[in-house]
Design a protein that fits this description.
single chain, alpha+beta, five-stranded mixed β-sheet, 15 helices, disordered N terminus
Length: 580
């Protein structure tokens, strides 16, 4: 304890170190831990601490107990007399140490379940040597307003009046009775007719706001104790409620959270979901999960009829204005920003209102068509007595199943933990599906590649066949053309001369080695010999006539000369040679 006392002295600012030194000099007390405890007990008011030490010398030193208070990852050690130190004094000490105003936080983690008031001692709250308390943010002061020349702390209260949430400012010293009187004056609800809920247990009209531990998310509810004749009693039996709802014009039905019903019998599914969203926002604000607009089956498709990487569990939110916890759950849990954001990032969210029996029958039929009779029974066991509900649906081996069910009395922290567990659990299933999907995709790619290669091969074969057919047609056309040319050349060759007519006997030696003999009149021109050879398949454009002895090539200007002019009047041998 002495070592901890020195550590605390080292952490103090100069003013407190001077106060401690003066206190020890005046009282003559050398026990540093006792001096620190006394000063902290009197909030470092040296006059009060000295008077207590001098006026009551016979009182033994207080019995000090060490415990820890956590705040944003840091720990504050205290050694205090539990019998005399109050919650309010502890908050003042924490305020001075961490530099946070006492009205902006509360202390939780007390072993006792007693209602917390600033006047209660730590001993009454069960604090011991092993206790670990925590500081958490509470209602924040909104402003400093000058009143009678001094600043005054204002508190913000969220009060739901007739289904509408009002954020009202009150001085921290306001009595509970003064808050109620303000509601009477501003909203015409006499105090005697006010029926409140949401105050911390043990609250009385004589307490001040600063005496209460008010959590930042707390919403108070007030309604008239005496119902008017036109208001439907939501606790009446279902048939009476349904008859009243159906008999009233649209928008005139009254419920526990506002005058407009969340859904209207007779509307289409999408129309009802849009109406649910609109009325829900008018009651609870725009911070809420994103509603899937459509049927429950379409919500299932949006959750599970998508690639594995995009699959998400489905939340089916079943609401009823008859449920006692419905408004608290919606305002304090479902519309928390962190819960709403987590649902948007990880779930598909579908909502339906079961205030009317007709709406209830619709959703039960949907559940049966999707989950079968067993699923209908599993959901039906919660309706209507255990509403509102959040049903988490996952899909395993192509079969939808109810993973978990949350009722309206769940806390925000527990709901968040359960949602995280549902996501992590489904992620295992989804990872298996993704692996199977990747394997299937690879098989599909391989099959597509094989089919593409096969089709490419067929295309190449078709193109080759087409080229072959074209070539054959061209060859045939060429042959026909060649035949026509040969035929036309044959017509240009005169018949062989008769016996006794001066003629030349010519042997044509072909490239293949074959020979052709033919007689021509001496006055036959050289071009006729080319016509003759061409008629045998050796066209003049590609072949020429050559004489070996003497070496001689017949072409060009000689075409118009006669055999006699060329000296070819005896038996001659001419070679048919292809032109290079």
């Amino acid at each position: 304890n002495e070592y901890k006392s020195y550590l605390r002295i080292a952490a103090m600012d100069g003013d407190r170190e001077m106060i401690l030194a003066n206190f020890q000099a005046i009282t003559g007390n050398d026990d540093i831990s006792v001096c620190l405890a006394t000063l902290e007990q009197f909030n470092w008011d040296i006059d009060s601490a000295v008077m207590a030490a001098i006026d009551t010398p016979e009182i033994p030193a207080p019995t000090l107990t060490s415990f820890t208070v956590e705040w944003r990852g840091r720990e504050e050690q205290f050694s205090l007399d539990l019998n005399t130190t109050t919650i309010g004094a502890l908050k003042d000490m924490l305020s001075q140490r961490v530099g946070v105003p006492a009205h902006s936080f509360t202390v939780i983690g007390f072993p006792s379940t007693e209602v917390q008031f600033n006047s209660k001692t730590l001993f009454q709250m069960g604090v011991g040597s092993s206790s670990r308390l925590q500081m958490v943010e509470s209602v924040q002061p909104l402003s400093q307003s000058q009143s009678a020349g001094s600043s005054q702390t204002m508190y913000k209260l969220r009060i739901n009046i007739g289904g509408t949430v009002h954020e009202l400012k009150f001085p921290s010293t306001s009595l509970i009775s003064e808050v109620k009187q303000y509601i009477n004056t501003a909203y015409n609800i006499p105090v005697v007719d006010q029926q409140w809920s949401g105050w911390p247990p043990g609250t009385s009209d004589t307490l001040e706001l600063r005496d209460l531990v008010l959590e930042p998310w707390l919403t108070l509810f007030v309604k008239r104790r005496r119902e008017t004749p036109n208001v439907i009693n939501i606790d009446s039996d279902d048939d009476e409620f349904d008859d009243a709802m159906d008999a009233m014009p649209s928008g005139s039905a009254s419920n526990s959270s506002g005058s407009n019903p969340l859904m209207t019998a007779g509307n289409g599914t999408e129309e009802n979901v849009l109406q649910f969203m609109s009325v829900f926002e008018s009651r609870y604000g725009r911070v809420h999960p994103i509603f899937h607009v459509g049927t429950l089956k379409s919500a299932m498709a949006a959750s599970f009829s998508v690639p594995a990487a995009a699959k998400r569990p489905l939340i089916v939110f079943l609401h009823s204005d008859k449920a006692l916890t419905a408004h608290l759950f919606c305002s304090q849990v479902l519309c928390c920003e962190n819960i709403s954001s987590y649902i948007d990032d990880n779930f598909v969210f579908w909502a339906w209102d079961l205030t009317s029996k007709k709406m209830e029958a619709y959703v039960m039929e949907e559940c049966q068509s999707i989950f079968g009779l067993e699923g209908r029974h599993q959901v039906g066991q919660y309706i209507p007595d255990k509403l509102p509900l959040m049903i988490v649906i996952t899909k395993v081996a192509s079969s939808p199943q109810v993973f978990s069910v949350f009722q309206g009395d769940i806390s925000p922290d527990l709901l968040m933990a359960q949602l995280v567990d549902a996501v992590e659990n489904y992620e295992q299933t989804r990872s298996i599906e993704k692996a199977a999907e990747v394997a299937q995709e690879q098989r599909n790619l391989l099959r597509e590649e094989q089919e593409r290669e096969y089709m490419d091969s067929l295309q190449r074969d078709r193109e080759k066949q087409q080229r072959r057919q074209i070539e054959e047609k061209e060859k045939m056309l060429e042959q026909q053309t060649e035949s026509a040319k040969i035929s036309s050349l044959s017509d240009l060759v005169p018949p062989e001369p008769d016996a006794g007519v001066p003629s030349t006997d010519i042997t044509f030696k072909l490239p293949s080695g074959d020979r052709i003999n033919r007689k021509f009149h001496h006055n036959t021109k050289l071009k006729i010999l080319y016509f003759f050879v061409g008629s045998k398949g050796f066209p003049p454009a590609r072949y020429r006539l050559i004489q070996n002895f003497p070496k001689r090539q017949f072409e060009g200007d000689e075409m118009e000369l006669t055999l006699e002019d060329l000296g070819l009047t005896r038996r001659e041998i001419l070679y048919v040679e292809e032109v290079d």
